[in-house]
Each structure stands twice: as C-alpha cells, then as structure tokens.
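Exercise 7. Given the encoded structure of a 188-residue chain, write a plausible sequence.
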C-alpha cells in the first residue's frame, strides 16, 4: 500500500445519557498522517446512522480518499448501518471492521425491538455481507467488505494498521468522537 493512500474512518462515541452518539470521520493516510476530521450524530436506538455516515462521507470523501472504513455496523444501540447504501454513495470500497467475536445481532434485535422497528432492522442486518475473521499484528478483527474482494479488504486493513488491531482511520475517528463528547460534557 502506498504511503499516500487515504481512507475515511468512521467511529462513534456512545453516550447513553445524551440520547445520541457522536460519529467522527477521520481521513488518514496509510503512513498515519491525519488529513481531515468531521462530525455528525445519530440517535440512540434510532434509524438515522446511515444518514449520518452519508453526511460524513459528503464532508470528507474527497477524490483522493480511496477507502471507507467503519468501526461498527450497529452504532448507537442497534442503529444499523445500511452498508450497501453507503458503499453505493461512496463509490469506493467499504470495509466494516469490528473487534469482538459475536454470534450475531438477531437475538439482541429481537429482545430490543418488535413490529416494524424489528422488521426494518432485520432486513438491513440480513443484507450485510458475510463477516470474516482476519489476523492483524497478532490480533483478531472481523471484516465485512463491499466493493472489493476479501483479499483486498485484508490488504487494506493491514495496510492501515501499523500496530495493534485497530486500523488507524477508525482509531483516530474513535479518539475524535470521544474528545468531542468530553468537550460537550464540560460545557454542560
């Protein structure tokens, strides 16, 4: 991977008391240089996370940003991302990277929602691409990808992960979203 390759990472800071989650987008080069930041939010338990990611994409995804990396598929308490819709709008490979083994979200969705809320979330969840286990720097992550094959997704994740198991665009976005939440809390 060339050192100047860029990815937009998206991650959240989940704040249960606020009723929303802060999403940050961070443009990061493969050599680790941060090249842009933006913020949005989505409702805890809502269905607006896809729109929030699309807004971040509009603000940050310049032509030189080659990849979109998201650090969750269900931010803000099951506010599921429609990865197909996001990837179509991005018109570049989208790679969702999660960090914990899981039996899936269907049981949790069924416990938390019913009726149309459940049906809509199940439809989005079932449309997600298969999740694959990937070893990165002696750590394990779980990857879903659209717009690229499994091998390219692995190359991208490893190329943007100089240490540990969290790709730098997602790590920086997570730090930025947490910092934004801390600042807002201090103002309150």
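Solution.
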């Amino acid at each position: 991977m060339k050192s100047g390759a860029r990815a937009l990472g998206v991650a959240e800071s989940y704040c249960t008391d606020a009723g929303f989650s802060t999403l940050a987008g961070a443009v990061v080069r493969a050599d680790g240089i941060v090249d842009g930041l933006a913020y949005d939010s989505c409702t805890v338990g809502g269905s607006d996370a896809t729109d929030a990611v699309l807004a971040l994409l509009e603000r940050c995804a310049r032509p030189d940003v080659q990849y979109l990396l998201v650090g969750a598929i269900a931010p803000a308490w099951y506010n599921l991302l429609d990865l197909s819709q996001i990837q179509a709008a991005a018109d570049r490979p989208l790679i969702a990277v999660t960090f914990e083994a899981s039996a899936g979200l269907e049981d949790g969705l069924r416990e938390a929602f019913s009726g149309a809320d459940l049906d809509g979330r199940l439809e989005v969840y079932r449309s997600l691409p298969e999740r694959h286990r990937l070893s990165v720097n002696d750590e394990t992550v779980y990857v879903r990808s659209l717009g690229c094959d499994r091998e390219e997704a692995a190359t991208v994740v490893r190329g943007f992960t100089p240490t540990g198991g969290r790709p730098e665009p997602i790590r920086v976005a997570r730090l930025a979203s947490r910092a934004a939440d801390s600042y807002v809390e201090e103002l309150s």
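Remark. The mean pLDDT is 95. Students should compare their own answers with the one above.
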